[in-house]
Amino acid sequence: MKSRDTLLRLKRFQADGKRRRVMQIETMAAEFERMAAELEREIGQEEARTGIADPEHFAYSTYAAASRTRRDNLLRSAGELKAQLHDARAELDEAQEDLKAAEAMGDRERAADDWRPGPVRAARLGA
Fold it and tell me: Which stretches does the entry tag as region Disordered (predicted)?
């Protein structure tokens, strides 16, 4: 009984940890994409201010060039996080399946324990 409860607590803890990891990755990816969009807006404003939109032009804004590099890095990182998110979701699904299996096993064991006649039930049954 005690080991069954311990197993269930462990499986719940593992599933909760996987769920938190998925949420963290989703949040980070969304934040990176938001920051990249903000940089894209700033790049557009800087290019409009200077009148030079060609990054290869010798007088292209160093701020716009640095912002482009930062934006590209953020988008690359967001893409990598999405790949991690796919793996984390698969791990979460597996942990939830393990939890369901442990809960089902516990339910079956409890049903078997309830069915087994204890001393009082055996006396009532005439055993």
Answer: 100-127
